[in-house]
Specification:
heterodimer, A: mainly alpha, ABC transporter involved in vitamin B12 uptake, BtuC, 0% strand, B: alpha/beta, Rossmann fold, globular
């Protein structure tokens, strides 16, 4: 049994490494076209972030929101609903949290911070819940509704930080940068490593990941959620109200994305500003898939994605590669990893490869 | 059209899959005009062997000869070239296309741009006349019944010029009447010189249709000989490798106090019409009541409304004299009704969940399996191990996904779960459909044991043998009503058959 788990782990690692390498290979062609040496570029991308305090802390700064969004995505996917609306849910969560922080600046941190997070959770949950409710009771395809809600959220968010909630100083100086006023220090997440941007949000995220794991696999509600997602017909048969659980899944999923918004506001920027979601709503989906839709897999997966993002930034600066190529390489890696899922889900294919690699004898088969 | 296959031989065919020897050194032969039945339990290697013949799999060893010439069949199109056609268990038809268009699909490829549907239609008419396969070529597939779709499949392979037909469990989805029609058709085809390989584990059909029988067990050919020489019982024995006794009811039911009373129930089906049209029925404690009927006469709706999965419009459903109609499924489960649903793979179990998680599907929220919302893993572990050994569920461990179990073992998971809850009343819908005899025997034994423990059982089935074997009374359902209820001593296949067709007064009918 132990040996089986061991060879399983080697197999997974191998497939992912091969996937990443093939993506980098295609990326190398792009870099060559841009007249850059791919080897130096990649060297920078993968060693620089790991070779200093700055890089390492920055990876974790990115990992925190990715982890939260990824957790939400895992809950929704496990419940049979595909949430593409992370971006919008982050924005609504961020603005709810910011509103609370700006309204009660004098509350002590141990009251204000939880309040901000709860408000963000509620904001994201409302935004996700709308799509969940429409799916359950009006049969609206959730992929469409969540994407469309992203646009609406963006416009609402921009209206608020440009208009009613804009920093009074921006108005006074006439610069008009769309951002809210700086939050009072009571709403700032503690920096856990001095002289870096690394804040306590990463700890919050890891704790929540463990809680989500317990929730999904150790509680009866989690059991019902997973049953509704895995086989709605069977869930009905055992008396689960599948529609309500779809809505619940989207409330939770949106709520987690909303808290990612709060983490960015309270941990990094200390105000709500234009590009606060930074694409985390989408890359969170990949993090969730990469982590096997499992909360404990999402923890390392978000760190790997943090590395990709930070590494790409550094590569852009030190090798002067155009930013668009960086985005293309990130996209390639995501594509490769998502496509490599077939090697995990197709059991026949997996067995063939594992036997070829001598990770498994033809005798021991998974099933009967 | 390709050359007539007057003799087909498969010699020493061996096919391995990771961890399984699916076919082990199998020799079979077939002459024109012959119907060969390929018998075996689930997983015996029947389908694999035929997929080798049809070019879907390549064997590790072995050769195929047609008319004494060796041939290499490496794809279905090569198989067609040699005149071999296969009708799969699950039909390969496009529902949104007409019969003509579906047949034309198989012919496409010869000419890419030209599609002469009139020519195809003519060919279909020829073929259907020759073999008596009546079908409307312009009908859409979705408009056809399962039996008609099967005929379209047959026409399709015949239009492609098949001389040798492989039918993989062709009767699995057919009603008894449709099965009888199919058997007549196949015999006619054989008389015209076609040869047929008939894969099945339903012995009555094999007996009725085939000239010769080959029995496979665990990938090896264990018997080959004339069908006539054997009774159903001896064939069953060869198939299972042991004697099989389908259990039957011995003593009459004693109990008379009703457990489930259905009174004048009306309910809508999926189509919005009244699927249950004033149905009344009573089941007593310690009694098995069978529901016989052609599927689509309200059986599914009946099972669903009793279990609260769909609602009734009017009427009463009483359990122990208390109305349970239109309660939530959860409440009905708690009141002690067990349900073995028709769709065991997607309703009765969650395929991607482990055996352990499937076993607790109805009790996950009760003490001691969970406490205050938290699942108690160590107790669940013990409980599932106990059920796995009590019900002899064959799985590597309790973390195996249900999707990778055989049909018989999935049904055992459901039985284990439902019976261990000590239900007062059990609804079993088609509990042995698609199972091999060994597994069917087990299911029936369990149902009879539950009956002896005073459980009331409602058994929905299409197989009259099953109903006659173990039911105290058999109710015939027709268009959403119970047409008549027969006691076991007066029920016969003929009587039930007539009633199932909606003919109530048999004197008039005969």
């Amino acid at each position: 049994m132990k040996k089986k788990l061991y060879s399983e782990a080697i197999y997974r690692l191998l497939i992912i490494v091969i996937a990443v390498f093939s993506a980098l290979f295609v990326g190398a062609i792009l870099l060559l076209i841009a007249k850059t040496n791919p080897l130096t570029a990649y060297y920078v991308m993968f060693t620089e972030p790991l070779s200093g305090k700055f890089g390492l802390t920055e990876i974790l700064v990115r990992a925190a929101p990715l982890m939260l969004v990824g957790l939400g995505i895992a809950i929704s996917f496990r419940s049979g609903i595909i949430n593409i609306g992370g971006e919008g849910q982050i924005l609504i969560g961020a603005i709810f949290g910011t509103f609370i922080a700006l309204t009660f600046p004098d509350l002590p941190p141990y009251i204000l911070l939880p309040l901000v997070f709860i408000a963000s959770f509620i904001g994201g949950a409302i935004w996700g819940g709308i799509a969940g409710w429409m799916k359950a009771y009006l049969s609206v395809n959730e992929i469409l509704s969540t994407i469309m809600l992203n646009y609406i959220a963006f416009q609402v968010y921009m209206f608020l930080i440009r208009g009613p909630m804009i920093d009074p100083k921006e108005v006074a100086y006439g610069t008009g940068v769309p951002q809210t006023a700086l939050l009072s220090k009571n709403a700032w997440l503690t920096r856990i490593i001095p002289a870096s941007r690394l804040h306590a949000g990463i700890i919050v995220a890891v704790v929540l990941a463990i809680l989500v794991y317990i929730f999904l696999w150790k509680t009866t509600i989690g059991y019902k959620l997973r049953a509704a997602g895995a086989e709605a017909k069977a869930a009905k048969y055992i008396g689960v109200n599948v529609k309500n659980y779809l809505v619940l899944a989207m409330l939770l999923s949106g709520g987690f994305a909303g808290m990612a918004g709060a983490i960015e506001v309270c941990g990094v920027h200390h105000r709500a500003l234009e590009s606060i979601s930074a694409g985390y709503g989408f890359s969170g989906i990949v993090v969730a898939l990469f982590g096997g839709l499992h909360p404990l897999g999402i923890i390392p997966a978000s760190a790997v994605f943090g590395l990709l993002i930070v590494g790409a930034d550094m590569m852009q600066r030190s090798v002067t590669v155009p930013a668009s190529i960086i985005l293309a390489i990130q996209g390639l890696i995501i594509l490769a990893i998502v496509s490599s899922q077939i090697f995990f889900s197709n059991i026949g294919l997996k067995e063939k490869i594992m036997i070829k690699l001598k990770l498994m004898k033809s005798g021991d088969k998974d099933d009967t | 059209m390709s050359e007539i296959i007057s003799k087909l031989e498969m010699k020493k065919i061996t096919k391995k899959f990771p961890g399984v020897l699916a076919c082990n050194n199998i020799d079979i032969y077939l002459k024109s005009g012959e119907i060969l039945a390929l018998l075996g339990e689930n997983g015996a290697g029947k389908t694999t062997l035929m997929n080798v013949l049809f070019g879907l799999y390549q064997p590790e060893h072995g050769k195929i000869f047609i008319n004494d010439k060796q041939v290499i069949i490496n794809s279905p199109s090569t198989a067609f070239k040699y005149g071999i056609g296969m009708v799969h268990q699950h039909f390969m038809l496009v529902p949104n296309l007409t019969v003509v268009e579906n047949v034309a699909l198989g012919l496409i490829g010869k000419r890419i741009f030209k599609l002469d549907l009139n020519k195809v239609r003519k060919r279909i008419e020829e073929v259907s006349k020759e073999y008596g396969l009546s079908v409307n070529p312009n009908a859409y597939i979705w408009q056809l019944s399962v039996g008609e779709q099967q005929r379209v499949e047959l026409i399709k392979v015949l239009c492609l010029g098949a001389n040798l037909l492989i039918l993989d469990e062709p009767t699995a989805a057919l009603t008894p009447q449709e099965t009888d029609e199919l058997i007549v058709l196949l015999k006619q085809m054989a008389e015209k010189g076609r040869s047929i390989i008939f894969i099945s584990h339903k012995l009555n059909e094999v007996k009725a249709v085939s000239n010769r029988v080959c029995v496979l067990r665990n990938g090896s050919l264990v018997y080959e000989g004339k069908t006539q020489k054997h009774s159903v019982a001896t064939l069953a024995e060869k198939m299972a490798g042991r004697e099989i006794y389908m259990p039957t009811l011995k003593e009459k039911s004693q109990a008379n106090s009703p457990i489930l009373e259905i009174k004048n129930v009306f309910a809508k089906g999926n189509m919005g019409t009244m699927a249950l049209d004033g149905l009344s029925l009573t089941v007593s404690k310690g009694e098995i009541v069978g529901i016989a009927g052609v599927s689509g006469n309200g059986q599914k709706e009946l099972a669903d409304v009793i279990n609260g999965i769909s609602h009734i419009e009017r009427g009463k459903i009483l359990l122990n004299s208390k109305n349970i109609a239109n309660l939530a499924p959860q409440q009905i489960i708690n009141k002690g009704i067990g349900y073995i649903p028709e769709d065991r793979m997607h309703e009765g179990t969650i395929p991607s969940f482990s055996v352990k998680e499937n076993i607790i599907m109805k009790d996950y929220n009760k003490k001691p399996l969970s406490k205050k919302m938290f699942l108690q893993n160590s107790i669940i572990e013990k409980y599932s191990q106990k059920l796995i050994s009590n019900f002899d569920i064959k799985c590597p461990d309790n973390k195996t996904m249900c999707a990778s179990l055989s049909g018989g073992n999935v049904q055992k998971v459901i039985l284990a779960r439902e019976l261990s809850r000590k239900p007062k009343m059990l609804i079993a819908a088609y509990p042995i459909r698609g199972l091999d005899l060994g597994a069917a025997e087990y299911v029936h034994e369990q149902l009879l044991e539950a009956r002896s423990e005073n459980v009331g059982i409602l058994l929905i089935s299409e197989e009259l043998d099953e109903l006659l074997d173990i039911c105290d009374r058999i109710a015939v359902i027709y268009e959403g009503k119970i047409l008549e209820i027969l006691d076991r001593d007066i029920a016969t296949k003929t009587k039930l058959g007539l009633l199932m067709a909606g003919i109530k007064n048999e004197k008039k009918a005969i």
